[in-house]
Sequence to fold (272 residues):
Amino acid sequence: MKNTEINWSTHTFNPWHGCTQVSPGCTHCYAKRQDARKQHDTVTHWGKGAPRMRLLDSYWRQPLAWDRAAARAGERHRVFCASMADWCDDEGLADERDQLFELIRMTPHLDWLLLTKRADSIEKYLPDDWGNGYPNVWLGVTVEDRKHGLPRIDVLRKIPAVVRFLSIEPLLEDLGEIDLTEIHWVIIGGESGPGARPFDIQWAKSIIDQCSQFGAAPWMKQLGAKPVESGMQIKIIGQNGRLSGHADKPNEWLDHLGHLNMRYLPCLNLIS
Fold:
C-alpha cells in the first residue's frame, strides 16, 4: 500500500524530523510548515541548534512490513528518505542515522532514495561497509538553481552508487548546460504551496532534452502552482473542472499543453 502522495515513490520514511535551511530551494519548505502545524508552534525542530524530533519504535518497524509486502508482490518499492529532514544534516541524530542504514540492510526489496542538499557531507555519513554502494540505495541531490544546485552534481558523480539521481525541484531558473554523466534519473518540477515561485516550461524542456543526450531517465513530476510559458502564467484545469493549484497529474496538463509531446510524459527506465 502506498503511503505517500509523492508520485515517484511508494513510501516516505524519516530517521528524524527537523532541518536547517541551506539554500534558496528551502525558502518555502513544506516540511517546516507541516512541523509547525503539528507542534502548534510551541516547539520547532527547524533551524540551527533546534532539537531534532525522535520517532517511535513502531514507526521504525514499518519498513519491515513494506519489505515483506514488496517480496510477496514480486516488486521493488521505492522509499524516499527523508521528506521531513535531511539525512546528511550535521545536527541530525547520529544513532538514528546508524539505525537507518541497519534498516536499509534489512529491507532488500526496498529501493531507498537518499536525497540531500548537503552533497559535501554524503561521504562523511555513508556507512563503513558502503564500498561501491548498497544494491538497494539510490543517492540523490537537490538542484534548484545554478549557484547551489549544479556544484552538487559534481560531488554526487564522484561517490560510488548503483543509481544516482537529481531532484530538480523546485526548479527556480534555467540551468543552462548540465553535465549528466553518470546520472541515471532526473526528477523535474515546479514549486507548489504558499509563495510558490514561477516555473518556466522551457526550463523543463531543456533538461529533458539533455537527459536524452546523456541517457538519463527524466521524470516530469509537476508543473507547480505557477507554470509560465512565454512570460505568461498558464492556467491548468484539473479533472474536477476546477483550477489546479498543483498540476502534479499529467492527464491534467498534457491536454492543455499539446506542444509537450509524448517524450515529456513522466518516464522512468526501471533500473535493477
